[in-house]
């Protein structure tokens, strides 16, 4: 019998992406595939375009006046910049967690139920189930299950960030974008989120911007190194850190600049 090969298509395919803020070009001819059920880290010195690139993946840059994009980004083969794309649906499929935890000034429960309610879920039992499941997935349930009606802003910073992850998961995205999600957190909260990523990648595809190379090496399967708006190198994390193909990558990871 012929050996069966499982072909996993990339979750996201980026081809020849250029991005301009007005006259200023911030991304140059970036092409890369993001694979399903992996953690992909975006690294590089400040201002190299990591966050800009991340935001192109769910069209968050649309909110910034004067942004122009050339090239193609496909989600499961479909171009996300096509005219007929429903951007709200895109952002449901491709969720986002930001650098500083930003819970809404509402209860823990209402933070998680917010997205599902917007998408039309009204049934109390269904919402209860979504809230519990999302908080469990974000490894926060045990800490908050007895105070779901308390205000989310009363949680610690690390708990707030896990709440924001739970809020992103509540609308059942496929891909979760994280922009330096631990940079405002203490080491214990950081390691909780790093552990969480290893769980989450079984179900989701994760793209994370990080300033911290050790973090990229610990949490990611693939790493993309950006410099001055160009994607210099993209490879398996272990290979990129142990045997970089490009001299610029080597100089960066060995601390010669950045
Ligand atoms: N809203 C904006 N308007 C104009 N230029 C911008 C805007 N946002 C970012 N830029 C510019 O685009 C370039 C890339 O910025 P970006 O924030 O993507 O880099 P980064 O690698 O994420 O940096 P950091 O690690 O400091 O967050 C920088 O030169 C920045 O000044």
TrEMBL record:
<dbReference type="InterPro" id="IPR005670">
    <property type="entry name" value="PstB-like"/>
</dbReference>
<dbReference type="GO" id="GO:0005315">
    <property type="term" value="F:phosphate transmembrane transporter activity"/>
</dbReference>
<protein>
    <submittedName>
        <fullName>Phosphate ABC transporter ATP-binding protein, PhoT family</fullName>
    </submittedName>
</protein>
<dbReference type="GO" id="GO:0005886">
    <property type="term" value="C:plasma membrane"/>
</dbReference>
<dbReference type="GO" id="GO:0005524">
    <property type="term" value="F:ATP binding"/>
</dbReference>
<keyword id="KW-0472">Membrane</keyword>
<keyword id="KW-0813">Transport</keyword>
<keyword id="KW-0592">Phosphate transport</keyword>
<dbReference type="Pfam" id="PF00005">
    <property type="entry name" value="ABC_tran"/>
</dbReference>
<keyword id="KW-0547">Nucleotide-binding</keyword>
<dbReference type="InterPro" id="IPR003593">
    <property type="entry name" value="AAA+_ATPase"/>
</dbReference>
<dbReference type="GO" id="GO:0016887">
    <property type="term" value="F:ATP hydrolysis activity"/>
</dbReference>
<keyword id="KW-0067">ATP-binding</keyword>
<keyword id="KW-1003">Cell membrane</keyword>
<dbReference type="GO" id="GO:0035435">
    <property type="term" value="P:phosphate ion transmembrane transport"/>
</dbReference>
<comment type="function">
    <text>Part of the ABC transporter complex PstSACB involved in phosphate import. Responsible for energy coupling to the transport system.</text>
</comment>
<dbReference type="InterPro" id="IPR003439">
    <property type="entry name" value="ABC_transporter-like_ATP-bd"/>
</dbReference>
<keyword id="KW-1278">Translocase</keyword>
<feature type="domain" description="ABC transporter">
    <location>
        <begin position="12"/>
        <end position="253"/>
    </location>
</feature>
<dbReference type="InterPro" id="IPR017871">
    <property type="entry name" value="ABC_transporter-like_CS"/>
</dbReference>
<dbReference type="InterPro" id="IPR027417">
    <property type="entry name" value="P-loop_NTPase"/>
</dbReference>
